[in-house]
Amino acid sequence: MTKPAESSNGLSGRTAIAGVGETDYVRGSDESILQMTLGASMAAITDAGLTPKDIDGILPPPGFVAWDELAAHLGITNVRYTATPQMGGASPTAALVTAAMAIASGVAETILVPIGWNGYSAIRPRPDARPNKRRFTAAFFETVRNFYAPYGLRSAPWWYSLYLQRYVDLFDVPPEAAGAVAVACRAHARLNARALMRDKPLTMDGYLASPLITGPLRKLDCCVETDCAAAVVVTGTDRAKDLPHTPVVYLGGAEGHSSPADELTNRPDALRIGLHAAAPRAFEMAGVTATDMDFLQIYDCFTYVVLLQLEALGLAEPGGAADFVKGGAIELGGRYPLNTHGGLMSQGHCWGMNHIVEATRQLRHEAGAAQVPDCELGLVTGYGDLGDGSIAILARGDA
Amino acid sequence: MSGGKVIPKPDDLNLELFQAMVRTGRMCLQRCDNCGGHSHPPRYYCGRCFSPDYGFVPISGAGAVYSYTVSRSTAEPAWKDEVPYLTVVVELDEGPRIVGAATGHDPDGVTIGQRVTVIPEKRTEDFAYLTVVFDDGEDER
Fold first, then answer.
1. Residue A150: which of B8, B71, B75 has the nearest Cβ?
2. What is the pLDDT of residue B1?
3. pLDDT at site B70
4. Which residues of A touch B7 (CB under 8 A)?
5. Which residues of chain B lie closer than 8 angstroms to A170, CB-CB?
6. Coil, helix or strand for A231?
7. CA angle (A181 as vertex; A138, A190 as ends), nearest 5
8. What is the pLDDT of residue A127?
9. Is residue B45 pLDDT above 90, yes or no?
10. Could you tell me which of A141, A187, A252, B32 has the fewest CB atoms within 10 Å of its CB?
11. pLDDT < 50 regions, chain A
12. Is the dihedral of CA A152, A183, A93, A349 positive or negative?
């Protein structure tokens, strides 16, 4: 495996992902959020060769499900540590830092990181659906209610457009740059039996024909609403070596935030997102650079947010992501295959936990038709709320 | 008219801000009593000098377009008849940025840096709706 670097915080290389699990990605599930999350969690525990009695930490996402009901339903009786990151879609990847700290310090040994939601059915429930009381909430909703929603800006595409249009105007970003992300994600989803959009090919012409929702976002710049759940199990790297799968070692990671985090128009530079702050710390901790990566699993709620993150990672200058994504560079076979499972854009929106699951499968060399040959090193990012960022740098460990 | 549109029921500092606008009929911002800096949204401690002492003061509403979006589709029935509609992030001359509606302006005729004025319109005792008027004089009022 890639040798862990001398790390300033002592966490690099100490933990590994030992198990992954996920549901199918569907529009309209027969299962509740709790059932889906339990199913993905049990699948991850089983994949790790463990049982619920081996789990002693739970790091659930904000909203939807809480650690205590997960523990009670799964039969996890020895909970020693719980915590919940409060950063929307950046939460699952940020939780890996917390897991590493808890395990490296001896507070816990083996930690479950789950997520599940009904991103489709919450908005468009079946006529016969059981009532769902589970909702996500966040502090920034107060900003939205008072300062965005009165002007017809009530959900994520409308909020993010408030700064993405500036990105497009300042750097003359062509729609084809965002289209390259949409097309790559769709091409990869076509290889994934679990991807919601696997049967729907997409060309650049098809992308460009997609209607504008709110500038600069077209319909096909937006990820797909999905009902799904996914989970990973993290444990000490030494322990992971005794478990069934090749460990996927956590080399480095970090979270980062723009200020103010609860309002996106009053930051000194509205185009500076949390990942700009997080990425340098994560690479330093891991002792690698962005150009060492064999693949990129980038949080893709919106295509333009992927472009900004490529720049935040240092892979392109400000405004330079449009050139970076040209010519198939982010497709399988290119230098930086991106979202090899189809991403939120085309597999489904599982808050980025599906990115961690896919990175793990890639580094185990179990990614099937989407396998990046002989990959050793890759990264996952998270993006959430109004621009919180997180990153995890993962390596193939010794079996 | 605002039929069906979101009219918030603000609390805490946001309520104080909107009530200042309703009371004065003018655009207002929070200002630090200690260093004189303006903040938006309002905060309990000044982000520059950390003072807890503040007031809400009338301003001209003058500023420039920092960013914007033109909505050509909406999930909100109340806005369906208004597409395409222009929403602007205004960088006020005092520094803070604020979001407002520019429904009177040509949605395809906006560029970053254009001079604009933010005008509050009372909707309730506790909320004023912010309209952005372009200084080029071409808006339909």
1. B8
2. 43
3. 98
4. 150
5. 112
6. strand
7. 100
8. 77
9. yes
10. A141
11. 4-5
12. positive
Rounded Cα distance between A214 and A221, Å, is 10
Complex ipTM value: 0.96
Test A158 with B79 for CB contact under 8 angstroms: no
Contact partners, residue A42, CB within 8 Å, separation at least 6: A21, A52, A74
pLDDT in tens, A68-125: 999 999 999 999 999 999 999 999 999 999 999 999 999 999 999 999 998 888 777 7
Of B8, B74, B75, the CB nearest to A146: B8
Searching chain A, which residue's CA lies closest to the CA of residue B71? A214
Give A107-172 as a DSSP string: S-SEEEEEEEEETTTTTS--TTPPP-------TTHHHIIIIIGGGT--SHHHHHHHHHHHHHHHHT
Q: Of B63, B70, B72, B68, nearest to B108 (Cα)?
A: B70
Name the minimum distance, in Å, from the CA of A149 to any CA of chain B.
6
Q: Which of A300, A110, A317, A332 is CA-nearest to residue A221?
A: A300
The distance from CA A158 to its chain's CA centroid, rounded to whole angstroms, is 21
A277 CB near a chain B CB, below 8 Å?
no
Measured between alpha carbons, how far is A55 from A108 in angstroms, rounded to an integer?
A: 9
Angle at B33 between CA B32 and CA B37, to 5 degrees: 30
Q: What is the SS3 assignment for chain B? A: CCCCCCCCCCCHHHHHHHHHHHHHCCCEEEEECCCCCEECCCCCCCCCCCCCCEEEEECCCEEEEEEEEEECCCCCHHHHHHCCEEEEEEEECCCCEEEEECCCCCCCCCCCCCEEEEEEEEEECCEEEEEEEECCCCCCC
Cβ burial A81-119 (10 Å sphere, 16+ → b, else e) = bbebbbbbbbbbbbbbbbbbbbbbeeebbbbbbbbbbbb
List the structure tokens of A222.
Answer: 């937006």
Residue type, A231: A
- Residues in chain B within 8 Å Cβ distance of A158: 69, 71, 87
Cα A282 to Cα A100, A221, A256, A343, B2: the distances in Å are 13, 28, 10, 22, 48
Question: Nearest chain B Cα to A168, which residue?
Answer: B67
Distances (CA, A) of A252 to A4, A89, A362: 9, 19, 17
How many DSSP H helices and E strands does chain A contain? 13, 11
Q: Alpha-carbon torsion A18, A19, A25, A31, what sign?
A: negative
CA distance readout (Å), A101 to A95, A106, A111, B40: 10, 8, 11, 36
Beta bridge partners of A395: A249, A377
CA B35, CA A369: separation in Å to the nearest integer?
61
Q: Is residue A314 packed enough to be buried (19+ CB in 10 Å), middle (13-18) or exposed (0-12)?
A: middle
- The rounded distance, in Å, linking the Cα atoms of A103 and A93 is 16
